[in-house]
Amino acid sequence: MSSELPFTDALRDRLGPARAAVRLGSSPRSRVWRIELSGTPAVVKQAVDGADAGERYTREVAALRLASRVTPPVVPRLLGADPAARVLVLEHVEHRRPAPDWVVGYAAALARLHAATAAVPADGVPLPAWSGPERSDTAAFLALARRLAVPVPDGTDAELEALIRRLGAAPGRALLHGDPCPGNDLHTPDGIRFVDFEQSSLGNGLTELAYLRIGFPTCWCVTATPGPLLREAESAYRAAWRDATGSAPPGDLTDACAGWLVRGDALVQRAQRGATDQLARLPEEDWEWGTVTARQRLAYRLGVVAELTADRDDLHRLGRLAGALRTRMLDRWPALTPPPRQRPPED
Questions:
Q1: Over the chain, what HEC string results?
Q2: Inter-axis angle of helices 135-147 and 156-168, to 10 degrees?
Q3: Residues 70, 112 contacting (CB under 8 angstroms)
Q4: Which candidate, 114, 116, 61, 68, places its Cα nearest to that of 89?
Q5: Which residues contact 269 (CB under 8 A, 6 or more apart)?
Q6: pLDDT tens, position by position, for the chain (347 residues)?
């Protein structure tokens, strides 16, 4: 597909001519430009690369329209869209360096985004349901433990099966971003705006609140948020959700974290997901992605789940296994270090 600005006649008729186009960096799955419309900056995004480009475009437009009902805004305004070319035009939002305690505002904005669909009838939301871990994920996780000669407590498999059922039935119809990572959050003087909704869905909001504890599982930027800041951010999420909906957020944060632990695809970038058992690679291979390596990612998540499940009767065996597997990894690869505690610069 051409890299020429895809500002179609339909968009030009609605918005006027686009001027001063500058190509911006983006993932291989999209092309992005900054433009000017009557002297006002805007952003053009086109979904490309792959048979699912149409679906990704449809999800993004639907999510942006749903989120636009939130005030103060949590997304840029959608100025125009051309489904035939899979192009959307967005308000340009200036991003500034996040504050040291950025996770607090991030969590509150995430709750307000999630609450955008809390009262919308099911037939009014053209988005798929969130898809959680499957039996193949837990089987791969247990196989990794056995390959590293870590004993699997009797009953762990049954705990994991019950976990999958609970996650699949978790209550809530939150508007999930799908990839709420550093870089997809724009920090402005008026608050945080989220972008890149190609993987948006409906589900339980704690699935994404868990990102702060489990280390941003779908993201390049894994960080270990310090405990006091983490608790403040989680409180901010719950307060913002209650303000928006009048009730406490449903779901179980420990279950959500455990679900991310067993997903091997959360060790690689999105383009590499779905084809290979990533956990099976770890005994012989480590690879870098963003701030940490795959083994660092998994070791950190193991520690989080081991701590969270210490007093959980229904996940006690998984917690014991997580702690033992983390110990084995650190013994075998002593150079593994924790993720950074601060968000690195994005440039």
A1: CCCCCCCCHHHHHHHCCEEEEEEECCCCCEEEEEEEECCEEEEEEEECCCCCHHHHHHHHHHHHHHHCCCCCCCCCCEEEEEHHHCEEEEECCCCCCCCCCHHHHHHHHHHHHHHHHCCCCHHHCCCCECCCCCHHHHHHHHHHHHHCCCCCCCCHHHHHHHHHHHHHCCCCCEEECCCCCCCCEEEECCEEEECCCCCCEEECCHHHHCHHHHCCCCCCCCCCCCHHHHHHHHHHHHHHHHHHHCCCCCCCHHHHHHHHHCCHHHHCCHHHCCCCCHHHHCCCCCCEECCEEHHHHHHHHHHHHHHHCCCCHHHHHHHHHHHHHHHHHHHHCCCCCCCCCCCCCCC
A2: 150
A3: yes
A4: 61
A5: 220, 289
A6: 456 999 999 999 999 999 999 999 888 889 999 999 999 999 999 999 788 999 999 999 999 999 999 999 999 999 999 999 999 999 999 999 999 999 999 999 999 999 999 877 766 778 999 999 999 999 999 999 999 999 999 999 999 999 999 999 999 899 999 999 999 999 999 999 999 999 999 999 999 999 999 999 999 999 999 999 999 999 999 999 999 999 999 999 999 999 999 999 999 998 788 888 999 999 999 999 999 999 999 999 999 999 999 999 999 999 999 999 999 999 999 999 999 999 988 75
Q: What's the pTM value of the predicted model, to 2 decimals?
A: 0.95
> Sheet holding 40-47: strands in order across?
18-24, 30-37, 40-47, 87-91, 78-82
Q: Please tell me the total number of residues recorded for the chain in this structure.
A: 347
Between vectors from CA 280 to CA 276 and to CA 282, what angle results, nearest 5°? Answer: 115
What would the two tokens of residue 167 be? 């996650």
Is the alpha carbon torsion for 216, 217, 218, 224 positive or negative? positive
List the beta bridge partners of residue 87: 46, 82
